[in-house]
């Protein structure tokens, strides 16, 4: 395939776009606010593509990959139930409309799956779980060298695993789901802050010795560890990469989850033998969602190795 491959990570507030060359080098990067609604999403995505094309001095764009929340039909190029984007009706033909606006072939993928492909590219392992700690809690599975989407596209929806039968009702209709404890939204609700990122504020306060912050941090880390444990016991991956908005905390997040995993294994020689804490990584500066979006596009050559920064400290 000739030309750069563009990846768009479309979220409810912003679109992050990158252009990747044939050798895997990131050639250009752009961010812009997302305009909600069908026409708004197409228009704002097309504007990011135009900015990338300009940054490439008018160079050819071979294809565009899009990572987007919601239920994605990759074959049809449609998305539905992306409520945070104002796309909560029938299947929306984003690939067709964005392709017509940009003159390039467009391929869609669920945003967590796209980020999983990006995490695979930077980690370069064939068995990997990408655990996204964003507004919700979800995982992408890259197993034996391929994405595992599931029969209904629900593989990795660990956030909707009920863990507390007496807990509050989740948005999915079940009671006491793990997402209500171990997600960015759950953390923000437990540690509200008027300014800045709630996760950063929480971990800073906990590091300073605030007892209340330590309690909230540990409860959150225990929930994330429970998600890691459930996924690891199901598919036994070589690596678990934590991403999403909370991952901006970096190494302190990995340490807290590693400590929780170790404590949870103290009474189980079986769990201890799996050394789950040593498999953890936390995404740092690598734009894995946009990288993965670029890599979902149809290609005729081997996938290049991408090497942005990612934390890799082991216990």
From TrEMBL:
<dbReference type="GO" id="GO:0016301">
    <property type="term" value="F:kinase activity"/>
</dbReference>
<dbReference type="InterPro" id="IPR043129">
    <property type="entry name" value="ATPase_NBD"/>
</dbReference>
<keyword id="KW-0808">Transferase</keyword>
<keyword id="KW-0418">Kinase</keyword>
<protein>
    <submittedName>
        <fullName>Sugar kinase</fullName>
    </submittedName>
</protein>
<comment type="similarity">
    <text>Belongs to the ROK (NagC/XylR) family.</text>
</comment>
<dbReference type="InterPro" id="IPR000600">
    <property type="entry name" value="ROK"/>
</dbReference>
<dbReference type="Pfam" id="PF00480">
    <property type="entry name" value="ROK"/>
</dbReference>
